[in-house]
Amino acid sequence: MVSCSRCGNRAVIDERCKEHFLSDFISNVKKTIVDHRLLSKDEKIMVAASGGKDSLCLIHVLNGLGYRFSVLVIDEGIAGYREKTIDDLKRFCDSLGIMDLRIKSFQDEYADSLDNILKKKCAGPCTECGTRRREMLERYSEGFDVIATGHNIDDESQAFLMNLFKSQLQIAARQGPVSGLKDMGFVRRVKPLYLCSEKETRLYTILNGIDVHFSECPYAVRSFRHSVGYELNKLEEREPGAKLGLIKSFLSMLPGLKEHYGD
Ligand code: SF4
Question: Looking at the domain assignment, is residue 8 inside a domain?
């Protein structure tokens, strides 16, 4: 049995017991919020959720820290997948007494589900899905000061590498814990889980007994992001801390990128 290096109890991850892992996790999120000035309690906050583990983890942490917010979920129409995550989200919001859960669908917005759109059109699922999701997010975040999302180290290190591989540093310049779209008239987007890994968010949900499906969108496997994530996971296994190192390097380059490309 591996023991916690601080108290000697049974370790659940990286020589930390359940209690020390959970308190470190919360401290990490709080520090990210403070260091990058992500949120304040007097702002009108919307959490853009999917119903997956990261969004439920974000809702749980923000709620525990005393933030009040609305939740928006977009139902793209992905049979056998999205209805389950939306059910998880409904149940979870209900259990926390979060009353303002807004569900908006591609069906109502575009008169078709993503599944049908992709049957009629030979296109990359994530490009089709992402463009529409962004449009809807902009529309339905009107009146809010800030949108919080559950992006974590894994998502962000993948995004940075994808932009490097595609020579799109102008897009990388708009990434980071706060998305740089404010000057373009969009609601500020923030990522409180920016410095938490996917492994940690998964463990956080398990240790808190959060009822969530860990399945992946069936279209994800067809995306470039998936291939990048796969390779990054292999690298992380060989060199633990590689993803965090990549993100820290990105953060140190970010001011220069913003200056060069404008924000
Ligand atoms: Fe949409 Fe792609 Fe995400 Fe699936 S993996 S929800 S298709 S962006």
Answer: no
Q: Taking a C-beta distance cutoff of 8 angstroms, is the pair 47, 178 a contact?
A: no
DSSP 8-state code for residue 3: B
CB 66 within 8 A of CB 101: no
Between the CA of 220 and the centroid of ligand 1 the distance, in Å, is: 6
Q: Which residues pair with 108 in a beta bridge?
A: none
CATH number of the domain at 219, please: 3.40.50.620
Strand pairing report for 101-105 and 69-75: parallel
Residue 1 forms part of a structural domain: no
Run means of pLDDT, 10 residues per run, the chain, 263 residues: 94 96 98 97 96 97 98 97 95 96 97 94 89 94 95 97 96 89 75 97 97 90 95 96 97 94 77
12 occurs within a structural domain:
no
Amino acid of residue 187 = V
C-beta 130 within 6 A of ligand 1: yes
Whether the Cβ atoms of residue 160 and residue 172 lie closer than 8 Å to each other: yes
The model's pTM is 0.95
Among protein residues, the one with the nearest Cα to ligand 1's atom 8 is 126
Q: What is the DSSP string of 156-216?
A: HHHHHHHHHHTT-HHHHTT-SSEES-GGGTPPEEE-TTTTS-HHHHHHHHHHTT-------
Q: How many domains does the chain have?
A: 1
